[in-house]
Amino acid sequence: MTIVGRKTELAELAEGWSRASAGEPELAVVWGRRRVGKTYLLTHFAEGKRSVYFTATRQDNDDRQLYRFAEALREQLGDEVADLAPPTFPSWEAALRFVAGLARTEPLLVVLDEAPRLTGGHADFADTVSAVWENHIRNQRLMLVLSGSAVAVMEQMLGPQGGLHRRAGVERRMDPFPLVDARAFQPDLSPTEFIEAYAACGGYPLHLTRWSAQRSSDENLDELAFSPGGLLLRDAPDILSEDLDWRGGYERVLTAMAGGARRRSKIAGRAQQRIDYTLDRLRRAGYVRVVRSLGNAGSPDPLYEIADDYLAYWFAVLRDDADLIDGGQGPAVRQRTAGRWQTHLARVFEHAARAHAQRLVASGALPSDTIVGRWWRDETVEIDVLGLSGDQPILVGECRWQAKRLAQRDLSDLQRRAAHLPPPGPAGLTFAFWSRGGADESLAGHPEVRAFTPDDIVDGD
C-alpha cells in the first residue's frame, strides 16, 4: 500500500506510536469529511503492528456495536485473545478497559473509525473515553485512535466543552488535497487538463484516481458526472449527510453561494431564511470560508464561498439537474450547464493563482513579508490577486481562464483598478497575469509585467 502525501499525518502518528510503545499511552484523533483518505491512511499506518481496526456503522445500536467490536478483537488478534475476549461487552467503558489490559506488556494499536456513531443514545462517547483515560490508563503500551467523518461532531468533542478537550496527544484534521499536492494522483494530464480534473473532483483521492488520462475532460465528465449513478453525481450528498442535517437549511445556503451570492444579505435573500447559525456551522465544519478584502482600503464586508472545490462544482453544476441526469439526459445537461462549468473553472483557477503567488513568496521571488489575498471595494472594483508588503501594494494580479493571449488593453485595465489602492513603495508595482494563453508581444516590453500559465501553477515553483 502506497500513500500519496500525508507526510505530516504519518509522522505525527508514528511519533504517537513510539510514545505508546515506550509505555506512554497515546490518544490520537483524526477527522475529516468522507473520501479524504482517513481510512486508507490509518489502514496503512496499522500495517505490521499489533492492531485492531473497528469501523462503527450507522444502522447498529450500541449493543450490536459492542458485539461487533468483541468479534473484531477475536478475529484480528487471534489466539492471544481467543480465551480472554468475551462474546460481547456490557459497555464501551468495559471494552476500553479490556483493550487497555491487552497493552500492559506489548504495544497495541486500536483504531475506532467513525467514532461519533458510537453514542448509541447513551452518554457521549467522548466522555466515556475521557473517563477511562483519566481513571484506568497509566503505563499501558496503548495507542487509541478515534476517527470520524462528522467534522462538526469531532471538533465539538475536542472543543472546550467536549469530552476529549486537551486529552489527545495527536489532533489532526484531514482535508481534501490542495491542487499542487493532488497533482501526484494525475501526473500524466497536461496542466490545463489537470486543473479541469481538479475543478470537478476536488482534492479527493478516489475521485481523482477515477479520472482517466486517456479520455478528454468532456468524456470524463460524461462518465463520472453526467451518467446515472456517476461517482461525482452521487458522492456529494453522501459526504454532506455525514455531517449536516438538511433540516437546518444548509443545502439552500450552499446552493445560493454556488449560484453567485457571496455577501450575507444576498445569501440570506436567495436562501430565504435566517443564516447566522447555518453559516457559522458551515464555516466551523470547513464547508465555507470567509474571505476579507486585504489591507485597509478595501470593503469592510466579508465574502463567503464554498471552500471545497468538488462540492462547489456539485452545487453549481450538478445539483439542480441530478434527476435529469439519473433519467438518462446527462449529455444534454452537460451542454446546458457549460456556462456554469466555465464559471466554476474560472473560480478554481483564480484560487490556484493566489496559491501560486504565495509559493512565489516562499521561493523568494517576492519579498518574504508579502501577504497575498484579494481586494475589492463595494461591487465596483475588484482585484483577483493582491500582494502587500506592510501596507504597501507590491503585486497586483488578474486571473483569466481564457485561451486568448493577454494584451496591452488588459494591462491598462489592471493599472486603472490598481489606482484605487494605496500608493506602492519605492520598488513600484509588479503586474501579474494568470491565464491559459499567456501574454502577447505587446506586453513583452514591460519589465513590470509577469505572465503565468497553468504550467507555472501546476508544475512550476
Automatic annotation (TrEMBL):
Residue ranges of coiled coil: none
Domain ATPase: 5-208
Superkingdom of origin organism: Bacteria
Occurrences of domain DUF234 (ranges): 314-403
Residues that span the membrane, as ranges: none
Family matches, as Pfam families: ATPase_2, DUF234
Protein name: ArsR family transcriptional regulator
Species assigned in the record: Phytohabitans aurantiacus
